[in-house]
Design brief:
This protein has 354 residues and is of the alpha/beta class. The protein is built from 8 helices and 16 strands. The strands form 5 sheets. Strands 2-1-6-7-8 form a 5-stranded mixed beta sheet, covered by helices on one side. Strand 7 (112-115) and strand 8 (122-124) form a beta hairpin. The longest helix is centred in the middle third of the chain and has 20 residues, at 126-145. GO terms for molecular function: 2-(3-amino-3-carboxypropyl)histidine synthase activity; iron-sulfur cluster binding; metal ion binding.
C-alpha cells in the first residue's frame, strides 16, 4: 500500500514526515518508514489525560486536536503530512471533520498526502486544501458583513469556555455587531432555522468538534469557527495566508502564544477602508467605546422624544407579515363556554347531507 507513495514522494531535504492512523496501524507504518525518514512523528488524538498523571517526557505539542511529540528545536511547519483514513465514498463537499482540520491548519508549502484504506490509493491533497481555505475565507467575509452573530455554546464542560464566550462577545461588540448566546446542544439545520435573525453562527466547541459538518444546502446560515470570527472582527489579526488556522478556542485567549489583543479605540486600524468582497460595498468603520469611557454615560438632548429602534432582531420581527398571537388582555369580553361543532372537517353533523 505504501509502495507507490514511497516511490513517488521523495523528501531529500531533512526527511521529515508526520502521519495519522490508528494506534496499531501507526506502529506498523512507523516501523516501515523510520529507515527512510530520519525525523518521523506519529500523532495521537488529544484526549484528556488522567488526573494526576505525570510523565518524565516533555509535554508534546497540541495542535488540530492532536498531540505531536516534537523534539526540542523542531517546528511543525517543517514537516510534510501523510494521513491514513477516510473512505472512498467521501466527497469534497462532505469531508471528515478530522481531515478538514488538518488540511486547513497544515502549512500550505508542505506536502499533504492521504491514503484510503479501502483501495490503498494515495492522493495529493494540495488542491483540495486550497478549495477548503477558499471556502473558509468566504465565511470570514460573511462574518465581516454580518450585523447579528449567534454564538452557539456547543460545550459546557471544556475548560475556559466562559472566558471564550466573553471574548467572542467582546469581539462582536468591538466590530459593531450584536451577539446572542444560544445553548442548543448539537447544532442541526432545523434548530438553527428557528433564528433567521442571525446572519452567521459561531460554534464554540472542543478541538474535535470545532468544524461542524456542513452538507451542501444544509444550514440556513453559515456556521463558523471561533478563529474565523477573530479574523473577521479583529483588525490586528494577520491577513489571510499568514495567520494560523486554530481549532481550539483556548488559543485565542490571553496567555496563548497566538493571542492577538484588540487595538485601542483610537487606533488607525479601525479606520482602515474595507470593501466587502461579496457585495462590493464599502464597510463603514465600527463605532465603539470602552466600557470605562465616561463619554459613553453622558446624556445628550434630543429635539424630539421618540422611540429609537436599535435592535436588528426586533427590526426584523417588525418587518414580518405575521408576528404571532396578540393577547389583548382586558379588551376581550368574557363569555360563557358553548358547545362546538362535532364531526370531521369534511362533514360536520350540523351541515347535513349533500
Amino acid at each position: 500500500m505504501l509502495g507507490p507513495w514511497l516511490h513517488d514522494w521523495r523528501r531529500p531535504q531533512g526527511r521529515r514526515c508526520s502521519f495519522w492512523a490508528t494506534q496499531l496501524m501507526a506502529e506498523a507504518l512507523a516501523t516501515l518508514l523510520r529507515p527512510r525518514y530520519l525525523d518521523l512523528l506519529v500523532s495521537s488524538p488529544a484526549l484528556p489525560l488522567p488526573v494526576g498523571s505525570c510523565s518524565p517526557e516533555p509535554e508534546p505539542l497540541e495542535r488540530f486536536g492532536r498531540r505531536f511529540p516534537l523534539a526540542p528545536g523542531r517546528c511543525l511547519e517543517e514537516y510534510g503530512a501523510f494521513y491514513v483514513g477516510g473512505s472512498e465514498a467521501s466527497t469534497d463537499l462532505d469531508l471528515d471533520p478530522d481531515l478538514s482540520r488538518l488540511l486547513l491548519g497544515w502549512a500550505p508549502g508542505q506536502p499533504f498526502f492521504t491514503c484510503c484504506p479501502d483501495t490503498g490509493q494515495t492522493q495529493d491533497e494540495g488542491v483540495r486544501a486550497g478549495r477548503l481555505r477558499a471556502r473558509r475565507h468566504y465565511l470570514v467575509e460573511r462574518a465581516r458583513d454580518a450585523r447579528v452573530v449567534g454564538l452557539l455554546a456547543g460545550t459546557l464542560g471544556v475548560a475556559r469556555h466562559r472566558e471564550a464566550l466573553s471574548h467572542l462577545r467582546n469581539l462582536a461588540q468591538a466590530a459593531g455587531k450584536r451577539s446572542y448566546v444560544l445553548a442548543l446542544g448539537r447544532p442541526t439545520p432545523p434548530k438553527l432555522a428557528n433564528f433567521p435573525e442571525m446572519d452567521v453562527f459561531v460554534l464554540l466547541a472542543c478541538p474535535l468538534g470545532a468544524l461542524a459538518p456542513q452538507p451542501s444546502g444544509g444550514f440556513f446560515r453559515p456556521v463558523l469557527a471561533p478563529c474565523e470570527l477573530e479574523a473577521a472582527c479583529n483588525p490586528a489579526w494577520p491577513p489571510s495566508g499568514l495567520a494560523p488556522y486554530l481549532t481550539h478556542y483556548a488559543d485565542l485567549l490571553p496567555g496563548s502564544p497566538f493571542h492577538v489583543p484588540l487595538p485601542p479605540p483610537d487606533s488607525e486600524l479601525w479606520d482602515t477602508p474595507d470593501v466587502s468582497l461579496i457585495t462590493g460595498e464599502l464597510r463603514p468603520p465600527p463605532v465603539w467605546k470602552p466600557s470605562n469611557d465616561p463619554g459613553c454615560l453622558a446624556l445628550t438632548l434630543r429635539p424630539q422624544l421618540e422611540l429609537a429602534e436599535s435592535s436588528p432582531a426586533a427590526s426584523f420581527l417588525s418587518s414580518r407579515s405575521w408576528q404571532g398571537l396578540q393577547p389583548r388582555l382586558g379588551q376581550t369580553p368574557v363569555t360563557g363556554a358553548v358547545s362546538g361543532r362535532r364531526g370531521i372537517a369534511i362533514a360536520y353533523e350540523d351541515e347535513g347531507g349533500s
